Amino acid sequence: ELFSPSQKYQLLVYHADSLFHDKEYRNAVSKYTMALQQKKALSKTSKVRPSTGNAASTPQSQCLPSEIEVKYKMAECYTMLKQDKDAIAILDGIPSRQRTPKINMMLANLYKKAGQERSSVTSYKEVLRQCPLALDAILGLLSLSVKGAEVASMTINIIQSIPNLDWLSVWIKAYAFVHTGDNTRAINTICSLEKKSLLRDNVDLLGSLADLYFRAGDNKNSILKFEQAQMLDPYLIKGMDVYGYLLAREGRLEDVENLGCRLFNISDQHAEPWVVSGCHSFYSKRYSRALYLGAKAIQLNSNSVQALLLKGAALRNMGRVQEAIIHFREAIRLAPCRLDCYEAGLIECYLASNSIREAMVMANNVYKTLGANAQTLTLLATVCLEDPVTQEKAKTLLDKALTQRPDYIKAVVKKAELLSREQKYEDGIALLRNALANQSDCVLHRILGDFLVAVNEYQEAMDQYSIALSLDPNDQKSLEGLQKMEKEESPTDATQEEDVDDMEGSGEEGDLEGSDSEAAQWADQEQWFGMQ
């Protein structure tokens, strides 16, 4: 009662701000609403009763918190409470001319999330009109399929007026390629940017380059770029979820565990640390824990594609395929140009539930949307391999993929699978040796071992299994192949009879059959999550 109306308004805003920082968002909204009501009453009073001429009142009224700022804070509370419609409503209530760039930016992001693309584009353009160097607004427009040339035209004046900004037009061009799924041209353009002295060793560019190599299926270069970025910025979090996933796929689980611990020490309020730990759990076959960690990551960032893929993977391996499909569809909605969302997600779910027709439709759509490259050709071939009628088509597609990229591991694996079915082991051995000439991969060495066993090259087969295990000590199929080989002696009739007698007596045959079926089941799981 001792405070003036303007002081009451200030106190309500300060109280709401404090609640906001204490993460009491509902309570904060309540206090912000009371503050706005107080401000409305204050405005009516000032209109009815003109200023008394008190000199102290003028500076006080000038220092009052902005009503627009209060509404922005309310919208922030609503977004934290996942009440996006209420956030949009409160910001929509601000007249267009009074909207600041950060209000337009929040509106654009909310519209985009709600699927209101036209309104989102309008808001992003308004941000750029006020702030031509707002890179997030540029990326927002490009992600909504606005042409790179149109976006560049909105920044041309500022580029010409400020020295050393010539890189920006190339940057826009690079990210236009990123959002149209043209990974090769995007990589080449970003590499040209990275060579410029102004942007050399730029962590953001290195992270983008690592992500692009990952999308293009070049995991080796992707890991290399992520490591470079990490060395330059030890506190880097962005993109580390993909890095952790790649390490887990390679069987480097100790490195994944260390990465997760390091990220949690930086911040546990981002999705990335939870995804990295989830990848460690998933590849340790602890699917329930991976599911929990994926859900926690989504709670922190509902737009985290890697978190959605992790949770979908865990659900699928737990037999909850329909729930997994929902998560993969959301991942595709957020990242329509990321092939792994289809390949390691939705299509594998369809194949697992014997919905070959749906898988074929999806693979054809991806092929038409992203174009005929080694990855899309291999993906389509993978589905064709599931249907006996389309085996020849699969062979043609794989040959095309390997012509484009002879070192593409997934294409080599699928072609080897096809040759194995046809019992063309010598052709398979030649294919695998050629693929391993310039790279070393656990799966390729293991498959080469299998082929060598088929042609009775036992000693070299053991060598290949050993190499595979040195690359990934957790690869069960390589371990079982090696153990099987060690138990085998020279293939004479006598020793074969002794082996049969021994195995019948000890029950080892049953154990081996059980481990083979278990390994086959895990191989399916690995394949669907993108391990092969």
Automatic annotation (TrEMBL):
The source's domain of life comes to Eukaryota
Biased segments, Acidic residues type: 495-516
Residue spans of the TPR repeats: 305-338, 442-475
Q: What Gene Ontology cellular component terms go with this record?
A: anaphase-promoting complex
* Start-end of Basic and acidic residues biased regions: 480-490
Q: Which UniProt keywords apply?
A: TPR repeat
Q: Does the keyword Cell wall biogenesis/degradation apply?
A: no
* Matching SMART domains: TPR
Sequence segments annotated as region (Disordered): 480-532
Coiled coil stretches, renumbered = none
Q: Which GO terms describe its biological process?
A: cell division; positive regulation of mitotic metaphase/anaphase transition; protein ubiquitination
Instruction: Report the protein name in the record.
Output: APC7 protein
